[in-house]
Amino acid sequence: MIIVGGVAGGMSAATRLRRLNEQAEIVVVERSGYVSFANCGLPYHVGGVIEQRRSLLLQTPESLAARFNLDVRVHTEAVSIDREQRVAHLRHVETGETEALGYDRLILSPGARPVRPPLPGIERALSLRDIEDTDAMVAATEGAATAAVIGGGFIGVEMAENLLHRGLNVALIEAADQVMAPLDPEMVGPVHKLMRESGIDLRLRTSVTSIGPDSVTLDDGSTIPADLVVAAIGVRPDTALADQAGLRVDRGIVVDEFHRTSDPLIYAVGDAVEKVDALDQSQVLVPLANTANLQGRRVADHIAGQPGRGRGVLGTAIVGVLGLQIAATGWNEKRLREAGRPYRAIHTHPATHATYYPGADDLDLKLLVDPETDAILGAQAVGRSGADKRIDVIATAITGGLTASDLADLELAYAPQFSSAKDPVNMLGHIADNLRTGTSHTIQWHEVDGTRPRVDVRTPKEYADGSIPGAINIPVDSLRERLDELPDGDLIVYCAVGVRGHTAARLLSQHGRTVANLDGGYRTWSSAQLD
Ligand SMILES: Cc1cc2nc3c(=O)[nH]c(=O)nc-3n(C[C@H](O)[C@H](O)[C@H](O)COP(=O)(O)OP(=O)(O)OC[C@H]3O[C@@H](n4cnc5c(N)ncnc54)[C@H](O)[C@@H]3O)c2cc1C
Asked: Does the Cβ of 291 fall within 6 Å of ligand 1?
């Protein structure tokens, strides 16, 4: 067996293969000088959070030889594959020595390459993909006072945080109108606010047009000082070897459910391959560590004759930004709308745990549901804690085929310091069930316009502190006595997060009014107004 790429997918395949087959001759070739390193920890070493560089190096060729009897060759690039002869041509990147190595099975896990747009001065921008990049970035931060990070995806926001942590003045420049594309805009508004409050100069709807010796120039004509420039614009599957070998490649290497390429003796996994979307079975690129690791294991199983096949991917992901957890699974509302797929959105803002126990914080949760089948289509969570477990529970529910209403029935671990007796995931299930059965009707933040009268059912103090323009204030506790003060027509009611609004809506509908509760309340609406 030859495995090309010795990090996430490649090393998972290699070690699993060895556990299943003690006799196999397994060679792992890796172009860089390191294998099995912690890509996901690289930004935190640049930031000084992971102090020791050696902490990033999980294995060495020697340790892998000792435990797994793997022949691991670093600084070795697979430059071409002769499929007819079943030979891989290798070249040592330092000495230039070449070797032709025969294979019975070949596994490609070459990963992805950072996108480098053709900007004037782009050669000064650093990307972060491997240990060598990390060393270069750490060296570049020495003596640097200012940094410009181009791109507000996962790696861009992690880099902005870590450079800030290192004491640099940081600008983050993002061409879209939001960072963190997997989230919908009303979920990410508070993230923008926190980034700005923390001192990051966040420029949205802005592109870098050129990179100078100590600054970057933006498309609005302004310049930002930048001793260090980080390009974090995304990654593209590294298909060079697969292209050369004449394997089927579309946006990534095309594989079947067992991760076989168009040549059944050659498998491919990880960031380089197209994956099958769990919701619509389309081909998607999902460059994440968990899928790469899982696919590596599946390939080893298949080669060893073990049953099992690849599943569709949800793209479940999480990132930490300045103390916030931002997590998502499945599709977001933007993608559902673009695809013309019907959906129902649910927002809720529960406490992370029982509010009477110290330390409870707010959690922003969003669930997307198929209105016909009640299937869960996706979820997003933002909060200082607890976002991870809620998204993981929902991702598990999607994989297990549970409906949105089923979430109400999940028995989830509870004690006051960890959750509430009705966990936020249960609450999503209750809301979904009420909507499914027609017990309640909601309206979304972007549907609030001047045509329907709005009733704010919070306290006068909350109302005075900020309300939706044109809303009148009748607190929910006095609503029964003040029904005659309500305006005519179909009503919108709202409260802080949707809970009192739901009670008000139920009361009013039982008094014959047509009423919709603002989903997620004032909090979702006002988050959507943040830039
Ligand atoms: C900075 C950073 C942070 C990340 N954080 C997270 C995170 O928090 N969570 C998450 O889920 N994912 C994260 N990821 C993504 C995750 O690391 C990748 O999805 C995962 O590593 C992909 O595994 P892979 O095996 O496909 O590719 P890689 O792990 O990138 O390994 C590919 C290896 O193949 C080698 N190679 C390529 N071509 C050849 C060749 N021809 N010959 C020899 N060797 C070759 C490359 O040198 C490379 O080392 C992060 C990535 C980066 C860069």
From this structure: no
Task: List phi, psi (to 5°) of 331.
Answer: -90, 150
Q: What are the distances in angstroms from CA 201 to CA 126, 176, 395?
A: 19, 15, 34
Q: How many CB atoms lie within 10 A of CB 418?
A: 16
61 alpha carbon – ligand 1 mean position (Å)? 17
Task: Check if 182 has its Cβ closer than 6 Å to any atom of ligand 1.
Answer: no
Strand order from edge to edge, sheet including 208-211: 208-211, 215-218, 223-225
Return the active site residues: 495
* Distance separating alpha carbons of residues 467 and 40, to the nearest angstrom: 42
What separation in Å is there between the alpha carbon of 37 and the centre of ligand 1? 9
Look up residue 344 and give its amino acid. Answer: R
For 344: left if phi > 0, alpha if psi spans -120 to 50, otherwise beta; the answer is beta
Q: Is 391 helix (H, G, I), strand (E, B) or coil?
A: helix
* Tokens coding 143: 């003596």
- Give me 97's structure tokens: 């020595």
Please give the pLDDT value at position 450. Answer: 82
What pLDDT is recorded for position 1? 97
152: Cβ below 6 Å to ligand 1?
no
Q: How many residues does the chain have?
A: 531
Q: How confident is the model at residue 465 (pLDDT cuts 50, 70, 90)?
A: very high
How far, rounded to the nearest angstrom, does the alpha carbon of residue 451 sit from its chain's CA centroid? 37
**Ligand 1 in reach of 9 Cβ (< 6 A):** yes
For residue 403, pLDDT over 80 is answered with yes
pTM of the model: 0.95
The atom of ligand 1 lying closest to the CA of 29 is 43
- Would you place residue 311 in the very low, low, confident or very high pLDDT band (cuts 50, 70, 90)? confident
Give the residue, by CA position, lying nearest to ligand 1 atom 38: 110
CA distances from 301 to 229, 308, 310, 312 (A): 43, 7, 11, 17
